[in-house]
Amino acid sequence: MYGIYWDCDGTLMDTEKAFAYAWQEILRSKNLDLPIEHFDQYVGVDDKIVHQKYDSKVGLPSFEDTMDMISKIIIQNMSKKVMFDDALECLEYFYNYDWKQACVSASPQHHLENKLMDTDVYQYFHYIIGGDSVKRNKPYPDIYLQSIKELETTKNIIIEDSPFGIEAGVESGEFVIAIDRGVFSQEQLSKANLVVTKLTPDIILEVSESL
Q1: 3-class DSSP assignment, residue 195
Q2: Rounded distance, CA 158 to CA 202, Å?
Q3: Can you say how many angstroms the Cα of residue 164 is from the centroid of all Cα atoms in its chain?
Q4: Under a CB-based contact definition with an 8 Å cutoff, are residues 115 and 84 in contact?
Q5: pTM of the complete model beyond 0.70
Q6: How does pLDDT run along the chain (211 residues), one tens digit per residue?
Q7: What are phi and psi of 109, to 5 degrees?
Q8: How far apart are the C-alpha atoms of 188 and 58, rounded to whole Å?
């Protein structure tokens, strides 16, 4: 059985900058004004780590309350067109192709589920897991190993966009496709088995033939 394991932010959805602007707004309200580029280093990083870092500097509400604030800011500021067209095409194709698909994100579970429902793609996934559902989030492989165990797939493809996510996928022992969304350098993406600038069903099918 084939399985595709999708990262969410930056892979399925164009949300990385939205998160950055939300963090910038929250920290600015605490009199810490940082340039938007500063937040690039946290793409794909566990939200708890980011929260802990800035909580120690400016004193933030609880992790859950902060994430609720971020989600509200994103919803207010985000354009309606959130899904990447290439990812949506592949999701629909392999849903109808009868492959199993999972969404595997470092984001907290209920925030992840809300994003998937808000963008009308929740139904494409056989399994959804957030970073707070495992003891060790990305870059550790636990979240992918648990997903694969849950779906019982034997030929697996992981699709990621960030170094932490790629590392988690590679450490799981599965084939990793990195999608270059223009955020990271080729060197930062180079640990993946394959780096592409656009996702297509043909690319994924070609990879599957080598598994």
Answers
A1: strand
A2: 15
A3: 10
A4: no
A5: yes
A6: 999 999 999 999 988 778 888 999 999 999 999 999 999 888 878 889 999 999 999 999 999 999 999 988 877 766 545 899 999 999 999 999 989 999 999 999 998 998 899 889 999 999 999 999 999 999 999 999 999 999 999 999 999 999 999 999 999 999 999 999 998 999 999 999 999 999 999 999 999 999 9
A7: -55, -50
A8: 30
d(CA 111, CA 67): 8
Name every residue whose Cβ is closer than 8 Å to that of residue 84 and which is 6 or more positions away in sequence: 11, 12, 13, 14, 181, 199
Q: How far is CA 131 from CA 37, 59, 104, 140, in A?
A: 24, 23, 8, 11
One-letter amino acid at 37 equals E
Q: Phi-psi bin for 192: left (phi > 0), alpha (psi -120 to 50), beta?
A: beta
CB 188 within 8 A of CB 37: no
